[in-house]
């Protein structure tokens, strides 16, 4: 047995490429990778069978009396050495995923806040407050006096207030002020209003240690509290501070897909999650000296392209082209056209190092939190950011000059409209004089829009890349459900061409009417994964405007992460659920079905006034679950009478405007 295992060389099996992705550019590059003998995560996923016990979350390695494995087919047949039941083990594992995911978002948000402080007190000169209006708005919301005060003073007060998001040892996080009263009441009743994120993550790690919390519902409460410290805390601060420093997104036409690379230019990709690195790189590639250096090396210019989440932010804020989502980060290097790739934190595959090596791409880590063995590290310091980004450009120029790899760039680009912030949606729907969500609520109430769905999250080589995202979103809009998106999911749909106003013809009659009247696509991209906080704010606003119930749990809305893979996704899912949203995940769910813990997540939480989890692999099944939930909420609100099909003509529009 053992011998044959050893003999079996792990040759990357020839993939059936059409079965692993619907992204044509990625498919073209996977075929090239195979010709070049290069392995990617797609190949490794095909040969690495997912561990079934781990997939069910039926094992525990929290102490050295174990690791203990329980049997998913007979979950109550045995317990761990310490006596831990399947429900305890699963809840603890789930809790640690929430803790890790929340830590990723909140550490990122806290770094943004550190940067903000240093910019405000003048220690950092390379960035400035670009959106003082948003600064004042957020400050006012937080109860800070703005009348007649210097921007700097308002900003410092805001810094001190928002710092509590992370460090408060008691009380409630600042953005709890944005939560609808009735939702907040539910949280208070169950003791899950977050204090500072550090405290919540620490307590969750403590409680999931061997021999501490062994009541799955009690553990779940701390999962909610920690996840809420992410969504309404760390992530929300990251979004707001990024807007204040770099500008609040407004719609911008921009291109996605690998065809954004340019054969005759120095191509630089920034891949990761921190806008700081990317913003400074934008300065570097516009530096006349560096542009000249590129020209001296024979290039026509320098071409900056994004990937993953910081890419999605730059796409939203500045219309910087975006080359692809998480499952395309290795394949894009196979083009041979990438002269340098700079990465910071999160979703950076270690496998990139080997692929970069094969094609002579210069790969650089930049963040002290993320080094990769064998990869050159050029540390990014916010006080002197250009030192890092200029060096990356210089290296890219050298690599361009000495390109030896054959270059093959898939000739695919998709134009679309990106950059829909909460603020812009307000303006777009209500007009400049009367910014408001009232028209959205009205259109939901009259049935032209059936409800709103957030479709977000990763891509995952365990499912056909982009396919579940695209089919799910198409199905939702066909049924008059307005879709808002972030992260890798947004890029999947942008590649599928749904980010154009013309895509409105794919929507049902009611939604397409609204899209045509307002001139918006049926799918709205809000940015990176931390920008899921924009969806929370939009939900609050829908409640505040009225007519759709008193809490987020009353709204005809649903969420999905159809191709999720990261612990961050679990934290996001849990904060949506705890906020009152029905949230459906695909791929796999880390739980044994029909256990008490499973029933709690998928039903019990809803009975307590929260939202609940759902699961489906198939996009059509997923859409059905979400639409059924939206319809049930409409019925509960008394909106279930046949949805009007009246054409929204000018007269209707004027009536709305006059309202
Ligand atoms: Ni979100 Fe962004 Fe993408 Fe998933 Fe990773 S890039 S933070 S975790 S894979 S959507
Ligand atoms: Fe096993 Fe309990 Fe230790 Fe977990 S904590 S490894 S279930 S003995």
Report the average pLDDT across residues.
Answer: 93
List the strand order in the largest sheet: 12-11-10-13-14-15
CATH hierarchy, class of the largest domain = Alpha Beta
How helix-rich are the residues, as a percent range? 40-55%
- The total of beta strands comes to 15
Radius of gyration: 24 Å
Strand content: 5-15%
How many strands, which pairing sense, and closed or not: the largest β-sheet?
Answer: 6 strands, parallel
Task: Name every ligand kind in the structure.
Answer: FE(4)-NI(1)-S(5) cluster, iron/sulfur cluster
Low-confidence stretches: 1-11, 644-651
How far the N terminus sits from the C terminus, by CA atoms, comes to 76 Å
Question: The CATH topology of the largest domain, please?
Answer: Rossmann fold
Give the CA-based shape.
Answer: globular
Number of helices: 26
For the record, the CATH architecture of the largest domain stands as 3-Layer(aba) Sandwich
Structural class: alpha/beta
- Number of spatially distinct domains: 4
